[in-house]
Design goal:
The structure holds 2 protein chains of 2 kinds.
Chain A (H helix, E strand, L loop, with lengths): L4 E8 L3 H9 L1 H7 L12 E5 L5 E10 L3 E6 L6 E10 L2 E9 L6 H9 L3 H16 L1
Antiparallel strand pairs in A: 1-6, 2-3, 3-4, 4-5, 5-6
Helix pairs in contact in A: 1-2
Chain B lengths: L11 H9 L2 H10 L4 E2 H8 L3 H13 L3 E6 L2 E6 L1 H5 L4 H23 L3
Antiparallel strand pairs in B: 1-3, 2-3
The chains are: A alpha+beta, B alpha+beta.
């Protein structure tokens, strides 16, 4: 099996505090990702509204205030972990993004396999257009 | 929409996905990870009729996931793991998705507080 994780890095010309707010404030999060009652508190349970995928149950696993947050994403479905870590740099912030733990042997993994080529891409596209409207 | 799924436009991947979407065929692939098996051994493992098992093996062969080798009266099956690795590509959907989201985050940050 190939790498079952996604790791991305983005540099934003904004201070860490602004990026942190955009990640951990529900009103702002909804404008670039999706509706969900996130809070940077370990053990906090919330759900993210992924449109066609439905509500995805999440739980905050670790928090380093203003610096990093990781949470279980899509409990019982995709069963993955998302981590956002912020690094202050000259003139801005680097966001280190991780989405790890993708397993084929989960309901979502099987769904991805079984729906490939018909349902799945269009579901993703719908999410994207919804998010484009929100954003 | 076409822009979103460039990697799945090809005709190759769906064959692989269709092949592994079946539970019986996943059992076969799992078993072959341990090493080569004869058609008879695989049929016994699956608790299926011989024609049904043969059909599953044919699907896996056509998808390039297994290779058949004749040894005397036996047909021996070998796993072809390279094709299986393509399945890992489904994670790429998410990577593309997140890249778009992180672009949206950039727009939001610029809007909230132009630099």
């Amino acid at each position: 099996m190939t790498e079952n994780a996604i790791r991305l890095e983005r540099r934003y010309p904004h201070p860490v505090a602004a990026v942190w707010a955009a990640l951990t404030t529900p009103e702002l999060l909804a404008r670039w990702w999706a509706q969900g009652n996130i809070a940077p508190v370990v053990g906090h349970r919330f759900s993210m509204d992924m449109d066609a995928w439905g509500q995805q149950q999440c739980e905050v696993l670790t928090v380093d205030p203003g610096t990093s947050i990781s949470f279980l994403f899509s409990e019982g479905q995709l069963d993955t972990t998302i981590t956002w870590r912020l690094e202050p740099v000259d003139g801005g912030t680097i966001l280190h993004f991780e989405h790890v733990g993708f397993q084929l042997d989960t309901p979502m993994g099987r769904h991805a396999i079984e729906g490939m080529g018909n349902g799945w891409p269009s579901l993703l596209a719908r999410i994207d257009s919804l998010l484009a409207e929100v954003g | 929409m076409r822009r979103i799924f460039p990697t799945y436009a090809g005709l190759v991947l769906p064959d692989v996905f269709a092949a592994v979407s079946n539970p019986a065929r996943r059992v076969i692939l799992d078993e072959l990870r341990q090493g080569p098996r004869t058609a008879g051994e695989l049929t016994g493992l699956l608790d299926l009729s011989r024609p049904a098992a043969s059909e599953h093996l044919a699907v896996l062969r056509e998808a390039g996931l297994v290779r058949e080798e004749r040894q005397g009266r036996n047909r021996v099956y070998h796993l072809q793991p390279a094709r299986l690795a393509e399945i890992g590509g489904w994670v790429k959907h998410y990577e593309h998705y997140w890249n778009q989201r992180l672009d949206a985050l950039a727009d939001l940050l610029d809007k909230e507080k132009p630099s």
